[in-house]
Amino acid sequence: MSSTSPASGSRPGGRSARVRAQVLEATGAQLVEHGYDSLTVDVVAERAGVHRTTVYRRWQDVGGLLADLLDAAADDSWEPADTGTLEGDLTALNEEILAGVTADPPLTTALIAASFRSAQAARALRAFWEDRYARCAAVAVRAEARGELPPGTRARDLLVAATAPMYHELVLLGTAPDPHLPAAAARAAALAARAGAFSGP
Amino acid sequence: MSSTSPASGSRPGGRSARVRAQVLEATGAQLVEHGYDSLTVDVVAERAGVHRTTVYRRWQDVGGLLADLLDAAADDSWEPADTGTLEGDLTALNEEILAGVTADPPLTTALIAASFRSAQAARALRAFWEDRYARCAAVAVRAEARGELPPGTRARDLLVAATAPMYHELVLLGTAPDPHLPAAAARAAALAARAGAFSGP
What we know:
The structure is a homodimer of 201-residue chains.
Chain A: H1 15-34, H2 41-48, H3 52-59, H4 62-74, H5 86-101, H6 107-115, H7 119-135, H8 137-145, H9 155-172, H10 181-194
Helix pairs in contact in A: 1-2, 1-4, 2-3, 4-7, 5-9, 5-10, 6-7, 8-9, 9-10
């Protein structure tokens, strides 16, 4: 998994952490291999080799499992790449998104699909993305400090502009992955930002 | 429904067209009110007041019903608004997308969700969107003729850049609808386009 994608969280030691890792791994594998409809607490417990009451007590239901899978991904030490230029940083981010949504097994796309089934998974996925955008504010701060961006550029607007075409093309429009898209979308957002699209009133 | 959204197709007269209109209306209403899992040929036939064998013969299954709902929307006479400026045209397009994805009943979002369940619905939804982008090429042609865009601007890239933030914010990130977003996303894409983001090699 790319670390702009869910499910690449760190898993510190300890029995409880081991159980969590086993259960979340089983959740992801079951979702990817057999789809959301196959996902039950019992199936996950069996697959993880963990007692079902343990899973019920800690995660309650499928929504809880999916939300924790996304939480586990969010609390890692991911940071956006620092390439030295705004366009470079945004391209690196988009490359990670491309890797995530075209990964095999397709965990990211399975989680996006699951977010249309489970309100809890949807909330967790959105929290995951907002956390990533918040961390990526550093990209805009660095670019402003280098004089690459007008003062007061709204980082989230810039980041959404840079990354939205990735999700739209690859997830909703289902176009074949274009290796030039990460850089092209990054360049378009950077040009818009430099022209003042995300600063001012 | 907004006409950049599915299911606003014209329905010419005749018994066959009437049956089609009834069945597609029932399909959309059932999907919106009770979700994809409730959607069966039998339920749709009953709701439409049409014999089930008629529905099986003409549409085969749920995928066939959803695909035809989208086809019916695509073959209408929709054209992008001609406001006299590139930014105005893109803003008008984004306003229609905003109206579509925030509509009540939420048919557009229900169809997007269904596209993650049915490969046939996914293909039809993508064909619908590609058809809309193809019709919107006129927006870029007019802007180029007015000197608002560099020669050779790639219309689809421009249109995806303008509209992707709408879908990303409203469908995937689930942010509250922002009435300024249509114009802001249009302006960013227009600025990028004027700076050459969608022209050249």
